[in-house]
Amino acid sequence: MIELPIYDSNGKKIDTLQIDAATLGGEVRYALLKQAYVITHGNQRQGSARTKSRGDVHGSTRKLYKQKGTGNARAGASRTPIRKGGGVTFKKTRTREDFRTELPKKMRRLANRNALLAKLIDNEVKCFAALDFKAPKTSDFAKLMASVGIDRTCLVATDKGNRNAMLSARNVAGVDVCRIDQLNAFELLNHRYLVVDKAALVSFLEGTCFDNTPETDEAETVVAAAAAPKAAKAPKAAKATSAATSAATIDAPKAAATKTAAPKAKKENA
User: Is the pTM of this model over 0.70?
Assistant: First the structure.
């Protein structure tokens, strides 16, 4: 078990949190962390790097000086690849390069938890009872960091509803902010310290901070919403059919009366 100290806003230790290392992977897997870091870093590449060939560089194609008689080496245009400012011999011809690779879900989740385990072992996690700020203020967060001895880069992970803490920390030099459900191995390894409040850390360890709503529920709600207007229109159609049948029954005796009156008129004319 790992005992993580809990600090108040003044940097005083007030409690401890027991964390089972088995829930975070048991041991630090350096190869897995390296693989997760490299893949995440590569996925951030845009793949839009371009180079210009000799024909793309702006400049004249005129021969710099005559071939013979100057004593200098033979020279052509100023846009040749051997000259400064010239084109690239083999330019990049791809319109878009894709460097994206995928990491299996179980490996990715284990890497995120394993990176947190590495921080806990190195005593680089600063957990506070609460990150409560009455208003966004950068100086208050700077004092909070100084109270626990944070003097290097820092990652602040908190609940998405704690807006004041995010706004207070984002302007501090060397500090980055993320939501607790977006905590990943790449960000943890890129920063020396992790600042988190107790409630957010517990929700990450228990997995309650992640939205586990299945997509089937959303599909069912969409289908139900689409079927609702049709169900509402059904009684109107029933009313229309009932009105048509009643009108037909009412007009039926009239039609019969006209049919019986027609032969009488023919007999009288005869």
Answer: no
Q: 30-43 vs 105-121: helix axis angle to the nearest 10?
A: 120
The residues, any chain, with a CB within 8 Å of residue 37's CB and separated by 6 or more, are 185, 186, 189
At residue 234, what is the residue type?
A
* Same domain flag for 87 and 125: no
Does residue 36 sit in the same domain as residue 118? yes
Q: Which residue has the tokens 């000086």?
A: 65
Quick check: helix, strand or coil at residue 68? coil
For residue 164, the surrounding DSSP H or E stretch is helix 163-169
187 and 141 part of one domain: yes
Do residue 14 and residue 59 come from a single domain? no
Structure tokens at 217: 């529920």
- Same domain for 188 and 146, yes or no, is yes
Query: Predicted confidence band at 209 (pLDDT cuts at 50, 70, 90)?
Result: confident
